[in-house]
Recover the amino acids of this structure.
């Protein structure tokens, strides 16, 4: 029997145990695995070993495909959990979002502030926000700088914008949880866009808020089950290095919008379900959302519902 190369299998996740057995997601069933012996098993494993560093989370590129890797110590010994990334960033128009939502997100490209994409693990938030950044570069060009831990989507490179200009994206990875150094480097590089990888440490939260009021358009993701939880988590992380009141104040001034995303459906046919909340991008005008965040009392149900109705009807949000 001819063996199949690893990348020729249809899978999203790969697990390698201490015996070097390979398990991939089984596309026939939800939440199930199957064991495989790819023809290039040894080559892939050697690549995984050659780039591993002291961080538990890192990324590798194998034959043009990126993998996000987690090194885990279990009771039975070390294992690896890998998430396969697309070979190219998909178009935001092909991710199943309502066209009116996409069009509004694209109008934010000319503003500065913070866009957060929230959701659970595997909900597609990294894919969506990467697609949004790529579309911004195709729309207007400019320089984008990513700070990730680890890098996940293949964003780096040159983009030809619709207006005839050029867009360039440079991806960087955080070393030793030091988010301050790469952000300082990013700000000195004068990027139009900054993408900060998932907010899961106090340093990342603080630097994300700092960048949001620095005159740049900042995009980031956070693990959360609701819009309120996303704001609360961001503030709690940031409050390790500043007061909660200060964190809420900076968030109220910096926020442009937040998207909470879930993926529903079968393993091979999933589509996004989203909940959104936006602040008035014109800081010279009053904004209920900014006022609520500044008050620290996150009673957001009414503006979330009101904006959803307006967005669905194609009515201006502000």
């Amino acid at each position: 029997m001819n063996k199949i190369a690893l990348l020729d299998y249809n899978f999203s996740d790969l697990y390698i145990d201490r015996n070097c057995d390979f398990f991939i997601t089984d596309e026939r069933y939800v939440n199930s695995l199957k064991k495989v012996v790819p023809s290039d098993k040894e080559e892939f494993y050697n690549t995984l070993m050659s780039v591993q560093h002291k961080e538990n989370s890192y990324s590798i590129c194998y034959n043009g495909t990126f993998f996000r890797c987690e090194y885990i110590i279990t009771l039975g010994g070390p294992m690896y959990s890998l998430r396969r990334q697309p070979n190219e960033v998909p178009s935001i128009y092909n991710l199943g979002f309502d066209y009116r939502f996409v069009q509004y997100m694209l109008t934010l490209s000319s503003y500065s502030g913070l866009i957060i994409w929230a959701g659970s693990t595997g909900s597609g938030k990294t894919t969506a926000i990467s697609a949004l950044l790529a579309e911004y570069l195709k729309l207007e060009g400019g320089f984008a700088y990513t700070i990730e831990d680890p890098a996940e989507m293949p964003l780096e490179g040159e983009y030809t914008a619709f207006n005839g200009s050029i867009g360039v994206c440079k991806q960087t990875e955080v070393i030793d949880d030091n988010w301050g150094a790469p952000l300082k480097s990013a700000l000195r590089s004068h990027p139009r866009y900054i993408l900060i990888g998932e907010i899961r440490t106090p340093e990342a939260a603080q630097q994300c808020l700092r960048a949001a009021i620095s005159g740049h358009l900042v995009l980031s993701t956070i693990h959360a089950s609701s819009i309120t939880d996303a704001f609360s988590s961001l503030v709690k992380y940031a409050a390790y290095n500043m007061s909660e009141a200060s964190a809420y104040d900076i968030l109220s001034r910096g926020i442009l919008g937040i998207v909470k995303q879930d993926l529903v459906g079968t393993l091979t046919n999933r589509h996004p379900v989203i909940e959104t909340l936006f602040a008035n991008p014109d800081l010279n005008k009053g904004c209920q959302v900014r006022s609520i965040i500044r008050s620290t009392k996150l009673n957001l149900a009414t503006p979330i519902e009101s904006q959803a109705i307006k967005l669905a009807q194609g009515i201006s949000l502000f």
Observations:
- The mean pLDDT is 90.
